[in-house]
From TrEMBL:
Coiled coil: none annotated. Residues 19-114 form the HTH arsR-type domain. This is Helix-turn-helix domain-containing protein. SMART domains: HTH_ARSR.
Length: 204
């Protein structure tokens, strides 16, 4: 999830509250945040129709997201319309000083996000054959193992993050006016793991 604005520091949010992390770790709430990011402000009724759920369920989860400052009321066309907008659509907890409770909550959220990424991969695999080569050849799963020092690892991550954030900052995800012609939503889920040190090899 990524939506940035240098004008509003809440857009890029550092999560360290276990209650907020747990509040986000729900399939319907992740769907709502994603939908508000793609489409901009929506009423609970509009969100419910797009997600195929009841308006009551959408309203409940939007209120829970609002409780923890993930969404907030937006300006409607008239006094009867009550849309919601995403407050922060780029969240991270990697740099937070997490309590044990927050670590446990983050693990649940990360597992849910990984499962959703696998679901999206399955959808992509079904449509891939019909895509143009440029889309087809640059999407999917890639896996690379390399030996890095701690400093090299940090440098590599900073370079990758900077490259991605260039587009994130230039094109706020809920601002349709910043989307160039021919652009499509590209979901990037990166799973980076560091293996334990092999003490036996170090002693040889």
């Amino acid at each position: 999830m990524s939506l940035e604005s240098s004008e509003d520091p809440r857009r890029r949010r550092l999560l360290d509250d276990p209650l907020a992390i747990r509040a986000m770790a729900h399939p319907v709430r992740l769907d709502l945040l994603s939908l508000l990011g793609r489409e901009g402000p929506l009423t609970a009724a509009d969100a419910a129709r797009r997600l195929g759920i009841s308006q009551a369920l959408a309203s409940h989860h939007l209120r829970q997201l609002a409780k923890y400052d993930f969404v907030e009321p937006a300006q409607g066309k008239d006094n009867r319309e009550r849309p919601w907008r995403a407050v922060s659509t780029s969240q991270t907890w990697a740099d937070a000083d997490l309590s044990p409770e927050a670590v446990a909550a983050a693990e649940v959220l990360e597992q849910l996000m990984a499962e959703r990424a696998l679901d999206e991969l399955a959808v992509w695999q079904r449509q891939r054959a019909d895509e143009e080569p440029a889309w087809r050849q640059n999407a999917g799963i890639g896996r690379t193992g390399i030996y890095l020092t701690r400093d090299e690892f940090v440098e590599l991550e900073e370079q990758v993050q900077a490259l991605v954030m260039r587009y994130v900052d230039e094109r706020p995800i809920d601002d349709k006016s910043t989307r160039p012609p021919g652009s499509r939503l590209v979901e990037i889920t990166r799973i980076v793991v560091v293996h334990p040190e092999d003490r036996a090899l170090e002693e040889e």
